[in-house]
Amino acid sequence: MSSRTREFKRSNDPPFWLLFSAGGMISALLLPVLIVLLGFVLPAGEVSLERVVDVFENVFIRIIVVIVASLAFWHAAHRIRFTLVHVGLHRLATPIAVASYGAALAGTVWVLAVVIFV
Amino acid sequence: MTVRKPYYERPSSTWWLKRWPYRFFMLREISSVFIAGYGVLLVVLAMQVYRGPSHLADYVNFLDSPVMFVVHAVVLVFALLHTITFFNLTPKAMVVRIGEKKLSAVMMVTPIYVAWLVVSALVALLFLL
Fold first, then answer.
1. How far is CA B17 from the centre of its chain?
2. N or C: which end of chain B has fewer CB within 10 A?
């Protein structure tokens, strides 16, 4: 049976897998340093609030905030989806997929709203 | 014609608790919850910045507490677990060929770790300089 003759069912997985891997890579590169700076160094008073405002107000950084946060959501949604199925929730596979990706979509709309309107 | 209909036993829902490689796999999967959690914290911080200096000052004050310190410490541990496991997976997820030869795993992973250090340093300079 060659792949030429065999009929494959079209899958909607590739775009989600792409978001998963892009989100995984960007989170891997940026989250540790962001957590250290914004979670420890900033509260310790070692980063000036003016600098934080300047950085976050920058248009380029606003776009990066949208990319980092939304891709983190899509990455997690994809992993949580398959993890829940692998621990035995096979019957709920479809509702789990809808809930996971729905949450990631809601998070994406939220970060867009924050960056554009707040 | 009789068609064989094999019986497949479903794994128990606690299979991942039984051996260390499985437990580690599950910790890696759970790291994604903390990745999303930090996405939320980042958006909240951005929101407080955009709402104005007094909101930002209040929020930074709120971050300067033992509870938020522990929260960030736990998130950081899982983020590092994510970073290391994700980088180490790249040679398995994609194979780079140069001519006939496959690029070795070490040759693929090392530049990624170097890029991580460079990116981290640049972000630190952005906030600290």
1. 21
2. N
